[in-house]
Write a structure and sequence with these properties.
The protein contains 48 helices and 8 strands. The protein is mainly α and 966 residues long. Pfam families: AAA_16 (PF13191), GerE (PF00196).
Amino acid sequence: MSGVPRWGSDTPLVGRREELAALTDAVARADGGRPSGILLAGEAGVGKSRLLHALDQHAAEGGALMLTGYCVDLGHGLPYLPFRDAIGALATDGEYAELIARIPAIAPLVSTELAAEEVDSSAVYGGVLRLLDVLSADRTVVLVLEDLHWADESSRNLLHFLLSRLRRQRLVVIGSYRLDDVYRTHPLRRLLAELVRLPDVERLDLPRLSDPELRTLLKALEHDGAAPPRGVLDKIVHQADGNAFYAEELFAARIDDADPASVPTGLSDLLLTRIERLNQAAQRVVRSASVAGRSVPYSLLRATLTLSDDDLDDALRDVASHHVMHSDDGEVYTFRHALLQEAAYADLLPGERVRLHAAYAELLAAADPSPRTAADRAHHLYESNNLAASLRASLEAAEFARRSGAPAQRLTHLENVLELWGSLPAADVPEGVTEGEVLRRAGAAAFQAGQLPRAVSLGEAAIEASTDDAAKVRAQVELAKTLMALDRDGEAHTLTAAALTLAPPDSESRLWALATHARAVVLTLRVGDDGLMDYTEADQTIGEALELARRLGRSDVEADVIVTMMSATQDDRQSDDGAAQLEHALELARSAGRVDVEQRVVFNLAIGRYEAGRLDAALHWSEVGRALALRSGAESSPYALSVRGIEILSLYHRGRWDEALQRVAEAPKGIADDARMAGSYVAIARGERDVADWIASRLPADGRTGGHFMGWLHGGSAMIEHSAWRGDAEAAYDWYTRTAAASMTDFHREPGARLAALALWAIADDGADRWRAIADDLVQVARSALDYNLDRWRVDGPESLAWMAMAEAEYSRIAGGDEIALFEAAYDAFGYGDRYRQAIIAWRLAELYAAAGRKDEAAERLRAAHEFAASVGAAPLLDKLRDLDARARLHAIAEQPASGGAANPLTERELDVLRLVDEGKTNKQIAATLFISAKTASVHVSNILAKTGAGSRTEAAAIARRSGWL
């Protein structure tokens, strides 16, 4: 067939100038340390792969490292398949093999050996991120993932993880997908909606070619010595309607058949016509190969066909010459386009399809019976109606997924098992496997995959289906962990108590039941009839758990129980002795190699130091936790995420606001909203109204949040302060009421001190007599925050005491009292490290001193508060300080020209924007970093250009640097 034109990646690239420019520009930006993600969308056959091939050539010529992986439509397959493709190619390259060996977290993606134990998916995510970070330190890396519409859930989650962590790597991540295949309920659809909201991710739509572009393409194919009958180009262009692949197929069909009327008009029929033009042996090859998927090893293909070697070689030559399939190495044959494989498979007769699936299942089992091929075998066995064998293979595939760090795939395979279970006789079920055990494993997988409601349903079914006490104990403990994650602590306590009645003494199952019950007990502590906290059950459970852990040599469980003991009473983890015990637990966890327990210990060290007002120590342990998460790849674990929140709050208190916002911007998917809620203190203190709208959207009036009470505490507190700065006492009190209801209980009152102090500030500013009764109630709420300072339960850390002092000071503005003394006491109380709150109180003191005629003291307080507020960009406070300075004629904070020469015409917020402009960030990226809208960012940039007289963003930054404003 010498007249048939070239196809696929060798087809000339026609049009696509803008789209290719967008891709090459992304690579150029990455060269300068500005990474990005691009979602390439287009219908089947429109030319996505051809465009990516052109990018490959361009980027490789510029020295970039190209990594490509493919998703396939074949059952559930291997988890992380496209990443296995991309990284596996590196693992066989001597230049990178040593690097990959130094990152053990990615071993499940490159090793042929199955991991000995369960792998944490967050470790895999972190390992891939670290690999890309290291690779992109020396050269730009372009990671291409094709056909995302077929991606497994683990791959989709990993893609989201990577795109949410684009910072300064020299990295471009591109994912292509068929637009027409992503229907309304497709699992990729929701992910795409989340990804395009990320600041460094954009969608690139690939439209159909125009008629002139199609003609250019077809004429280019003519230059290869092939030409359709005279005058048919217009008909091809009209019929193809801009689809490049369809046009190529029509072109080839017109070459092969001089009668245009004989050419089918539908793409599917057209593709089948192409296959039917093959000789009989070649058609058999194509039909057999279609059952294997887009690609098939030569060895498997040969084994499914009763052809001699010579006949098979002739058939493969015919297949290749007609451009139906191709092979680069003779070892693996691939359909030129997925549409060809789909058409060939759809055309199989039912019996033929069943026989071929059965043959592939048998061949895979003979060639590689390991769990690595189990998913493929399960698929082929199911399609060949061998349900019993498919069930067994699905169990193997679930185990492979567990040891590959792919809980979502594990859940899918186990649910396949459960679906088949009821349709099979007991004799066909593997010996030793029970329905209750499969349900328990599925519940654990759902928990690890973040599907908590599903985990509860499966856990409840597992308990019901358990046929012996040991199985029931395991199921109860698993479900209790899920319930505690959902804050259903009372139900968890009931379950673990029941598990203890069934667990045999001195067994590991009893040990885990004790450890889990101890946590449930601590979470459900209550005041006894004597008015004191009842620690009887907690002491007994913790003591027995520690003793059994030591007797069984389980240092990891011992460490875990020590943490439970320390968190049972806040005073313990706040004290130096408690911190010492936690550091001992950290050594135990490290010696046992239990990263999950180690993270829990570090979190408690960080929060204990935070509660004790030791903010520098809290920052130290937060950094330890962040390093641990990065090293282990467990950045998305709950404790790693909570440690990040502590770090953000500590940086906020210490006045390191830009660092706090950087931690917010770096937050992974699981904590993105929680981190932003903690970081909202900074945005509110800088006067950003956009963030107030965002908080209000997350904390609606009906009280639904979908998150932890801490989201309400931080977001609600920020909104009370926002209302106070605006002088809106009504809104401040409304936010107080809603936040108190969401974050306080009879057992958990300490947030009341903060909330009441902030609300009292707002209503004291309002000054209306109607607020007096409410003020009396609010100060009582603050005073009662320590009502549970009973026995061993203490909540009188320095932060709570400081907020109580501030509440008393603000209350004195309404009810009377020694205001100066009370505000001085509040100022001293926040001296443990909250510099912003001290600056606010210094403003109050300056006002009181000025009113009392103590102008020198007023000026001193004003200058100190202004110095801090100016250093962090606290715009509302700066306005109040300037107003007071003018009203009281203190002349303490007269504006001075910038040290570089000309007076700085820019506001603090404009300087924040200009710093990001100087870093090369776009308006969209500036908006995401500063919690403002893209429109607001654009307005700031326009104001900067006008004030500096610059003609461009770059020139404005240069002027600011020369003038000393940056």
